[in-house]
């Protein structure tokens, strides 16, 4: 299956993509470009909101605001102006770490981890935010692939350098993880952002892999989407029937020769699939951490 380019945004590190039902738009962040991007379902009416700090992942609330995992911590921010208010700093004594991948559980709580940009050492906590903040997994070097099964009882997570996606029992009432198990090992690339479709398949962007992979409940690859750039970063389902998959990419660290060979790097891509995704939901955990 092949994709089409939707927006030639040339993001340094496109990430955090998801569909917002309230205004029928897809939103994504350029982490190192410190900007929040959005467009309509066909890639039109593009907007770029500059931000005061790098935004790594985020979730909208029901009031038009958003909870953002910025590089330095969790903030409530205005997606129209970029104005933000710090709620909980993230690893303030570790200069080379920042927040990274995050998503909502099925109850509207935000689960997010971080990255050690210096050594990729497993020192970064994975938090569940709302109504309090608690750690829900062992520390990681790069948190990615955070996603939830349709019933919310399984949480997926990878420490990207390991190439291994893990699955955890998830207590939907308390927002806590239980036993974890190996789910799948990614070959020919590394696992990045993920989303789950209505059939429970896990779709994962493969960094340095030119593709998105879908895995069934056993962890076996059952479908693949080819992307014409190497650094595939995150996926989300959207559109009026949730059958369009949006795919962010990056051009981080690519020299002039690599960009000449893959000029669409950093773009937003899309593909229409037979199986729909699941609604992303809104953040319900409050802002008193």
Automatic annotation (TrEMBL):
The portions of this protein that span the membrane are none
Which coenzymes or cofactors are required?
Zn(2+)
Active-site residues are: 192
Can the keyword NAD be found in this entry's annotation? no
> What positions does the entry give for substrate binding?
98, 100, 118
Q: Which GO terms describe its molecular function?
A: calcium ion binding; gluconolactonase activity
Location of the SMP-30/Gluconolactonase/LRE-like region domain: 13-251
Q: Which UniProt keywords apply?
A: Metal-binding, Zinc
The UniProt note on the cofactor reads as follows: Binds 1 divalent metal cation per subunit.
Gene3D superfamilies tied to this protein:
TolB, C-terminal domain (2.120.10.30)
Which positions does UniProt annotate for a divalent metal cation binding?
Answer: 15, 144, 192
Q: What is this protein called?
A: SMP-30/Gluconolactonase/LRE-like region domain-containing protein
On the tree of life, the source organism's domain of life is: Bacteria
Q: Which family does it belong to?
A: Belongs to the SMP-30/CGR1 family.
Q: What are the recorded Gene Ontology BP terms?
A: L-ascorbic acid biosynthetic process
